[in-house]
What does this fold into?
Amino acid sequence: MSKRIKEYLLTLFGLLCVALGIIGAVLPILPTIPFLLLALACFANSSPRFHQMLLNNRWFGAALQQWETNRSITRRSKIKAMLMIVLTFAVSIGILQGRLQLQLGLLALCCILLVFMWRLKEANVIKVQVDN
It folds into this structure.
């Protein structure tokens, strides 16, 4: 595959991930940050301009910069993500009432995601106290 085609495909996939991330910011069913992280990785290899646009975004830029520099997230973000995983999977499992195999499959997937999230490195947040 030529380099130019690879760059176009990565840029296209990155834009798709950004669109899904934006949808995820509105709908609690879709995750936002994982899609933006995928987009960030795609743009890092295809479009420096889009890569910088994501890193400088006022809503998600700080979390993406933190991930890019030291592969960590804040404890607050981790807890929020884990709560959303539990909530959305609980609703999905409840909707599938009477379909035990699907419920067990979702439960297994939920546990895998929770273990993955639990193992992510937490950022060291340093609070600066200002004396008057």
